[in-house]
Design brief:
- It is a single chain.
- This protein is α+β, with helices and mostly antiparallel strands and 268 residues long.
- It folds into two domains: 3-214, START domain (Alpha-D-Glucose-1,6-Bisphosphate, Chain A, domain 4, 2-Layer Sandwich), CATH 3.30.530; 220-267, no CATH class.
- 47% of the residues lie in helices and 25% in strands.
- The protein contains ten helices and seven strands.
- Strands 1-7-6-5-4-3-2 form a seven-stranded antiparallel sheet, with helices on both faces.
- It is globular and about 60 Å long.
- The protein starts with a helix and ends with a helix.
Length: 268
């Protein structure tokens, strides 16, 4: 087999696993029990979600921990973009950073497509302070490997250090099918850097979008004013970036936007 073909097959298997985390150490040491204590009581979730989480946690195909690039933004700004992935994806497309498309189904559930054969669903299971725990299901389709599906638990921790936010992502991935699962375990030993690169990609994009947002000369607030977004999602960003609301008032961008983001409440 040619080296280039081998590399593409390897990247395809790992892409299937790591895309689950974008919506998210030895794998045998990942889980300490049948249920992750960081999620609280099992009964708080539906039987379907609980069963899927337990399957991943008991015996993940692979697990990785990746430190993302620091973002020179306040913690609340970074967290706002983590909590509105559809806004982050739209901004990334506008800036030509990525081709992801994310749709918010409600405050905690999302559907995504990376524009390169991968698509999936994610649900925020726990959102508290500086930590987010996310469950994902998805699949990746390629001409060489066909369709590979799986699920994942992603734990994202945010730490404010000085004027920067340092994100750390720990992912537990379960790949469906014995052949694909065995291939992933084998390839992760030699090609772990590919998995790490793909995991870090989502963190890099979030950091770049957040830094663009706090750059007052970068045009983010003007883009946000034009982008067709539900008012609640726009509010989430502007609450963390009140300078956008002030700029809209000064620029006279229209009362609809002022009402949309509840400017008076945000600026208090």
């Amino acid at each position: 087999m040619k080296a280039g073909s081998h590399f593409k097959q390897t990247e395809g298997v790992l892409a299937a696993a790591t895309f689950l985390l974008a919506l998210a150490t030895g794998a045998s040491d990942a889980a300490a029990g049948p249920w992750p204590s960081l999620l609280g009581p099992r009964e708080a979730f539906s039987p379907e979600v609980s069963a899927a989480v337990e399957r991943i946690w008991i015996k993940p195909t692979l697990s990785r921990t990746v430190n993302g690039p620091p973002a020179r933004v306040p913690l609340e700004v970074y967290a706002a973009f983590v909590d509105t992935p559809e806004v982050t994806a739209a901004a990334a497309r506008f800036r030509k950073l990525a081709s992801y498309d994310v749709q918010a189904l409600d405050d905690d559930r999302y559907r995504g497509d990376d524009g390169d054969g991968a698509r999936g669903f994610s649900q925020v299971l726990r959102r508290e302070g500086r930590r987010r725990v996310i469950f994902s299901q998805g699949e990746h389709t390629s001409p060489i490997l066909g369709t590979i599906s799986g699920s994942a638990i992603t734990v994202l921790d945010l730490e404010q250090r000085g004027d920067s936010v340092d994100p750390t992502l720990t992912a537990y991935v379960y790949i469906d099918g014995r052949v694909a699962s065995a291939a992933a375990r084998l390839l992760i030993v030699s090609f772990g850097f590919l998995a790490d690169r793909k995991l870090a990609e989502g963190l890099r994009i979030t950091s770049e979008v957040a830094e663009w947002a706090v750059d007052r000369s970068g045009g983010f607030c003007e883009w946000l004013a034009r982008e067709p977004l539900p008012s609640a999602r726009r509010n989430r960003i502007v609450t963390a970036l009140p300078s956008c609301a002030r700029g809209w008032i000064q620029a006279g961008l229209g009362q609809s936007k002022v009402r949309d983001v509840k400017v008076q409440e945000i600026l208090q």
